[in-house]
Amino acid sequence: MTDARLAGKTCIVTGASRGIGRAIALRLAGAGARVGLLARSADALAELAAELGGPDRAAWASCDVADPTQVAAAAVALRAALGPADVVVNNAGIVVRAPAFSVDDATWRRVLAVNLDGTFFVSRAFSDDLIARHGRIINIASIAGRQGTPLLASYCASKHGVVGLTRALAEELRGARVAVNAICPGSVDTDMLRDGAPGVAPDMTADDIARTALFLATDAPAALTGACIDVYG
C-alpha cells in the first residue's frame, strides 16, 4: 500500500545528496511528498530527483547553505517548482577532526557557518511558508550537540548551537503553530562518521534517522515542539 501521509505536501531537505539527507528524502517521497533537494553536488541531486519521480515529484537546487544569498535564490527556485514548503529538514553538515587549538580561523568559521548558520538561513528562507501552513522544521543535530567529544570542538560547538536554535525557534513559533524539533543521532553509517570518528562502529543506518524524521513530519503531534530526540544508547 502506498504511504500517502504527506500527499500534497512539499518537504525541503538540505544535504540531500548523500547519507542521512538522501535517506530522509527517500522516506519523505515514499510518504507522498514533493521533495525539494538542496546540496552542493548538482550531479548527485539530479540523479536523486530522477529517482524520486522527476519534476512532478522532486526539484533540486545546488546551494551552499552557508551563503544566505544562495539560500534565498534556491528557496525561490524550489517554491516555483513545487509550491510552498510544509516541512523543512536541515540536515546539511560538515565535520573536521583535529585538536581544538590547531583548527585555523577559516576552518572554525566554516564548520559553524555550514552547520549552524545554514540551519538558520534555510529556516528563515522558508519561514513565511511554514508560518502560513503551520509547518514543521526538523533539524539534524548530533550526539555531539549533547556532550563533548575530543578532536571535534568545532563540530560540537555547531551542533550545540543547533540544539539551542531549535529550542529558541520552537518558543518563538509556538503561537504560529510551527513545530520545531531536532534529532540527535549517535554513530550513523555514513561518510561523515568515517571522517569524524574513524574506526567507530556505527550503531544505526541513515534510514533509522530517516524514519525518525518521517515521524516528526507526519505522526508526531503538533504540540511536540522544542524536543531534541536522542537516537543513541
Give an account of the 3D structure.
This protein is an alpha/beta fold and 233 residues long. The protein is 44% helix and 15% strand. β1, α1 and β2 (34-39) form a beta-alpha-beta unit. α1 packs across α8 (206-217), α3 packs parallel to α4 and α4 (105-125) packs parallel to α6 (153-172). The longest helix is centred in the middle third of the chain and has 21 residues, at 105-125.
Q: What is the CATH architecture annotation?
A: 3-Layer(aba) Sandwich
Put simply, the count of helices is: 8
Mean pLDDT across the residues is: 95
CATH class: Alpha Beta
Helix content: 40-55%
Q: What is the CA-CA span between the terminal residues?
A: 33 Å
Query: How many domains?
Result: 1
Low-confidence stretches: none
- What is the CATH superfamily? NAD(P)-binding Rossmann-like Domain
Order of helices and strands: EHEHEHEHHEHEHHE
**In angstroms, what is the radius of gyration?**
16 Å
Main beta sheet strand tally, sense and closure: 7 strands, parallel
The total strand number stands at 7
Strand order of the largest sheet: 3-2-1-4-5-6-7
